[in-house]
Every structure is written in C-alpha cells, then in structure tokens.
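dude i think i finally got it to work??
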Amino acid sequence: MIGSAFFTTQYLQSVLDKSAMEAALWSLLPSVPIGLAAPAATALVQRGVDRAYVVTAGFAVAAVGFGMLALTGTDSLWIVLAACGVLASGIVMVMSQMTDLAMGTAPVEQAGTASALLETGQEFGGALGMAALGSIGTALFRHGMPASAPAEAHETLGGALAVAGRLPERSGDALAAAAREAFTTGMHGAAIAGAAVLVVAAAAAAVTLRGTGARHAPAAGAEMETAA
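look at this
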C-alpha cells in the first residue's frame, strides 16, 4: 500500500498538476470504503467464515486495485482514486485479520512484545514496498524518457518538469508531456508487479490460514495492552 502511494501522490500533483492541498483533499475520497473494509472483514470472521477466505479475498481485492492502476492514462483522476480505495480496502482487510490473529495467538504477558514485532514488520514491509516498486517505476520512467532529453530530466518526474519549465514553450511542453507519459508507464509496471505479489500472497493465505476463526475471549487482555 505504501509502495503504491509513492506513485499516486506524485500522479495527483505532477501528472494532473494539482496543488498539494487539492491532492490531499482528493485523497480523502478513498478513505470512505477503507473505513468499511475492516469492520466488514471482522463481521465475516465472527459469523464463522474461515479467516483464510477473508484474508485471501483481501489480497485479491488489493490486487484488483493494483490492476486498476495499471489501466490509468495521464488524465485518469477517478480511476486512480477508485484504485486507491480498492487497493487500500483490501490491505486493510488483511491487516485487521492478521493483527487479530497475531495478538490472539500471543500469550497475554507477551502482548507488548508481539505488538512491537508486528509494528516493526509493518514498517519494514512499507519501506520494502516503496523501495521495490519505486525502483521498478523509476527504471521504466528512465527507459521511457526521450534519449535527447537532458540528463536531469531522466532522474525523476519532478526533475523533468523543472527542466521543461526552463525550456522554450513548445519544447518545454513536449518534454513535460513525455515525462508524464513515462511516469505513468512506470506506474503501470510497478502496479503489475504489486498485483503479482498480492496474487502470490492470496494463494499463500488460502493454504496456510485454513481453520483459523475468530479470536477467543481470553486474548482480550492482549488487545487492551496493545491499545495502551
């Protein structure tokens, strides 16, 4: 999810040319389905649905979100917002269930340790996702830039737009358009890679989590310690 944010934030501001405030306000829209995803997943597990199915579905939904990102053009605001909502909703479904499973499995006296380990894993995963998907997107961006463009324009989308702003109008507009197209292509590649990882994760969840249901009541103390 964090790896996707590396692209979507730049897309809103540098491809669609929105201000930081406009991009932030538009980014609030995907939070609506996200707020419904975790309670819905929890309700399904509490009603007896195997957690493996819920987590697998979450990974599959997130993969669909990445697939939607792979369909964007350079003027696809609504597709990007919908993709963000679908992607994050799927990840939230997974995170809510895996957090519940981890904290419910840990002994009460080790709840703090389990919570810290879980948080560390999430932070490491976020950094790894941004590094991996960002590297893929950057490589494709550089490959898609015109060979005649200045070296600075091959580094980042922001650098390319800065160079374009210093060129004569026609040349600058052409370079900016090429840079936005190359960035979008890079986002497509990263989205496909992200979707592939999530499909593998869905398959793994379907196999390894079978038979895990809702958390039992004795683990409630662990939840209280985590909240503290």
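The first helix runs from residue 2 to 15.
im so relieved honestly
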